[in-house]
Design goal:
With about 110 residues, this protein is mainly alpha-helical. Helices cover about 35% and strands about 0% of the residues. It is built from two helices and no strands.
């Protein structure tokens, strides 16, 4: 599977990693958001699309809003679920109660 935009996706990930590192540093220092300086988005990766192929048509996805991995919200990959014991307990509790409260069915 050859992706013609492989190098652009790599640059996109590098930019995102640098942005995330700086953001975490600014948050830890408590820097005011108006004083934060982030690297500019590289011009050579502007307009980079998701590019994932559709199962039905075989055409590439044209979404421009990408996650750090270079794919859109539809093709970024599904959640793998909770990994820790605490997360699994919380997930199990979420299924016990839920849904919208119902009106009384009594006449």
């Amino acid at each position: 599977m050859d992706d013609p935009d492989r190098e652009k996706r790599k640059l996109h990930r590098q930019h995102y990693e640098e942005f995330s590192r700086l953001h975490a540093q600014y948050e830890a220092e408590g820097t005011d958001y108006r004083q934060r300086e982030y690297p500019p988005y590289p011009d050579e990766i502007r307009g980079l699309t998701c590019g994932a192929k559709s199962k039905r048509t075989g055409n590439p996805c044209k979404q421009l809003a990408l996650f750090f991995n270079g794919r859109c919200k539809f093709h970024g990959g599904a959640s793998t679920g909770p990994r820790t014991k605490a997360g699994k307990r919380k997930s199990a509790r979420n299924g016990k109660t839920g849904g919208r409260p119902r009106k009384n069915q009594s006449p």
